[in-house]
Amino acid sequence: MRILVICNYSLLYGANRSMLTILESFKKKGHKILVLLPSNGPITHEFKRLDIDYKVVNFFSSYLYLKILYKHLLVPVLFFYNFLALPKLLKATKDFNPDVIYSNTSAENIGVIISKILSM
């Protein structure tokens, strides 16, 4: 199985640590994995150590929109930034041709958008 994982941040907090354990298990079972990240960070060192493929595509997670909501003027700018990043995310997804698209948080919607656009 080919699994595309969309991770909304690159730090090693609880959700990402749990995700690493799951991805390591899938990798050992022979599944192909690609993780899309918004930036480099501590988690990329773990992906290298575990030999898990990842690609950095600069995008802003909708999860991060909630943290800056008080700065209302930035939300449209970040949405537009994601609109510009969407072709890169779509290309990475098409190139990988996943069977499953997984987002590591319920606050993330980019995986759903990609899935709808590509009819996956």
Concise description?
The chain is of the alpha/beta class and 120 residues long. Helix content is 51%, strand content 16%.
The assigned CATH architecture is: 3-Layer(aba) Sandwich
Beta strands, count: 4
CATH homologous superfamily name?
Answer: Glycogen Phosphorylase B
pLDDT average, as an integer? Answer: 85
Record the strand order, biggest sheet: 3-2-1-4
Low-pLDDT sequence parts? none
Gap between N and C termini: 14 Å
Structural class: alpha/beta
Assess the beta-strand content as a share of residues: 15-25%
Residues in helix, % = 40-55%
Envelope shape:
globular
Outline the secondary-structure elements.
Blueprint: E1 2-6, H1 14-28, E2 32-37, H2 42-50, E3 53-56, H3 62-67, H4 74-96, E4 100-103, H5 110-117
Helix pairs in contact: 1-2
Explained architecture:
The chain has 120 residues and is an alpha/beta fold. It has one domain (2-117): 3-Layer(aba) Sandwich (Rossmann fold), CATH 3.40.50. Helices cover 51% and strands 16% of the residues. It is built from 5 helices and 4 strands. The chain has helices spanning 14-28, 42-50, 62-67, 74-96, 110-117, and strands spanning 2-6, 32-37, 53-56, 100-103. The chain has a 4-stranded parallel beta sheet with strand order 3-2-1-4, sandwiched between helices. Strand 1 (2-6), helix 1 (14-28) and strand 2 form a beta-alpha-beta unit. Helix 1 (14-28) runs parallel beside helix 2 (42-50). The radius of gyration is 14 Å and the shape is globular. The protein starts with a strand and ends with a helix. The model has no long low-confidence stretch (mean pLDDT 85).
